[in-house]
């Protein structure tokens, strides 16, 4: 390029910053621009800050913030919001709050929403709500952020209550809102409310059923006990992605409809959609719950050999459950012994249950001993062990386990009381610290 102006430098910088893989090159280019006196403008700084946020490079972002101050750029709201977003994404909420306080006379809806998202990511949903409630003006994005925050924090009732409030304030929902609300309905098994959202908001208000809304609908109907409506929603969708297919396969699996789940899996493959790790968990679960031993083993083999997916703990749990239910207890034991010690408790619990069903006392005793050695602090494990020893006539062992269970329950209650008090104190201290920085 014979002549390089600032716009051309910014264009190249933007290209580098767009990908995490070329982030280092972007920093080198930015440094070259500064050192060689080429100059920078608001676009340059916004691009670099955006890159810092994408890759989570808070250290670099803090340096850029310092450079902004050095240049005397203190009242550029777009850049300040970019810095705010960088701190929030990097979980440095102390720096974010400090900057937010400095922006008191010029911060906007985006500034507040950035903080809401930051607190949500940290699980501090009540602080996020505090920021939300004090917003002088709210837009749809801020409502969506808060509703999604509640869903993510596993507080679906709060999400639905906020959605109701949003409706009363005549804010029109969009696809993002509906996905969060349907997810909340799924968590609460609120079928009637889910249907209402479908008909009143999606159908009557012509909200577009894209892959996100469609998948959320399928998931909601399946989890709320209406698999027929989930299937209808699935086949009405024009475009489906892997998450859509997985949602319905999971639905079939949860109802023990293994053959239907596998047929859908095959249909998905024929349409050129490649299954992911979660899809295989759903399909293997379907095989396990339907007693499709041979099909499940073949599926596990295809996952490893054809799709080159490295099995994770969830896949091994499915396989062990499949083998245990199918009576292949010793093969299941072999898989468990190949697992990391800390991952064995759930697998041993599954296998011990099957030993009781198939009356394999010898293997059951071996597995029971392993569970005792692992020292699991799990109430279900204690119950299972006590039942096993009672079944085999080892009453002394059963009484010993039940005594240990009572001691564990008492320690657990005492521990919970202490933890609750400690958490309340820590939470109050943290919120007190944060809210002293927040300009009420």
TrEMBL record:
Isomerase recorded as keyword = no
- InterPro entries in the record: E_motif, PPR_At4g14850-like_plant, PPR_rpt, TPR-like_helical_dom_sf
Which ranges does the UniProt record give for the PPR repeats?
A: 5-40, 139-173, 210-240, 241-275
Keywords associated with the record: Repeat
Q: Which example biological process does GO assign this protein?
A: RNA modification
Q: Which SUPFAM superfamilies match?
A: TPR-like
Q: Name one Pfam family in it.
A: PPR
Question: What Gene Ontology molecular function terms does this protein carry?
Answer: RNA binding
Which superkingdom heads the taxonomic lineage of this protein's source?
Eukaryota
Kindly indicate where the leader peptide sits in this chain.
none
Name listed for the protein in its UniProt record: Uncharacterized protein
Question: Which species?
Answer: Nelumbo nucifera
